[in-house]
Specification:
about 100 residues
């Protein structure tokens, strides 16, 4: 019984996909303003993705090296050597605990 349900579900999915694709092809072949706008937007999306891909191929290592700087310090390279020796976390650690007063 479960196999017939799976087959029924699969056949419905295939039928709906085929009907969607046939309508899509009919609309694609029609010279309609809506189709022209869709083609322009689809072309823009594809060109943008290709440009991002090639830009990442060319400059990806540089961007990665800038983000993960090498050197002393904390995460992602830390702070430069000329920074003060006490950060905000270290200076707050020695202070007395502040409480809320009403």
């Amino acid at each position: 019984m479960e196999e017939s349900w799976d087959f029924e579900f699969l056949s419905r999915m295939v039928d709906s996909l085929v009907s969607f694709l046939s309508e899509f092809v009919d609309d694609w072949l029609a010279n309609d303003t809506r189709v022209a706008v869709f083609k322009i937007l689809l072309s823009w999306l594809i060109i943008s993705l290709v440009a991002i891909h090639f830009a990442w191929k060319m400059y990806g290592n540089t961007v990665n090296d800038m983000y993960y700087r090498q050197g002393t310090g904390g995460q992602n390279g830390g702070t430069p050597d000329t920074a003060p020796h006490m950060s905000g976390w270290e200076s707050g650690a020695g202070d007395a605990m502040k409480t809320h007063r009403e």
